[in-house]
């Protein structure tokens, strides 16, 4: 009798042990393994960069030349289409805080923005006058919003332009040129795309500058006293590529 009771007790203890262990084993088997998820990599815009750019520019001009009207004038300087290509280099530094990017940049561009007006007198003297913007430069701050490797930015700073005016009085007098430069505001904006260390951009910059001249008479062929020739701002659109260190 005692032997039978002992067997029954042993079976009860074994059954209880299996009962307690079963749910735990089942839970271990059923629960799926979830692998850790890596944090997404976000592009870091912080760093120094240098690059080149090229594009197209146009200058607004104003004034009157050869107001005496002999031999080919008067010329309305606003009739100039002073436009053409630009090519230059730039360098700068960006610093990123969350999605906000602060920066400073300097650039210089050679310009081929020019146009020529022509007139002639009955004596076969030909007058050609040429308007040309041949150099642009700026130092600007930049402020932008970064969406990973795409940066949208605005820019504001100081801009510089060099302007040259040439008069050709052929054949009696010859050629004369004068030049002037001016500093003013430079502002604009653009978008930049990062691919590794390479940065590709499209931007527009306006130089709010006014280089030009008021003639006393005789500085260049056919200049009359009181004649004025000046630029009233230069606008550029350009593509660029930079390398970030």
Automatic annotation (TrEMBL):
Could you confirm whether the keyword ATP-binding appears in this record?
no
Provide the leader sequence positions.
1-26
Keywords, alphabetical: Signal
Carries keyword Endoplasmic reticulum? no
**Domain of life from the UniProt record:** Bacteria
InterPro entries referenced in this protein's UniProt entry, alphabetically: OMP-like, OMP/PagP_B-barrel
**For this UniProt entry, which segments traverse the membrane?**
none
The record's family statement is:
Belongs to the Omp25/RopB family.
Protein name per its UniProtKB record? Porin family protein
Organism lineage reads as: Bacteria, Pseudomonadati, Pseudomonadota, Alphaproteobacteria, Hyphomicrobiales
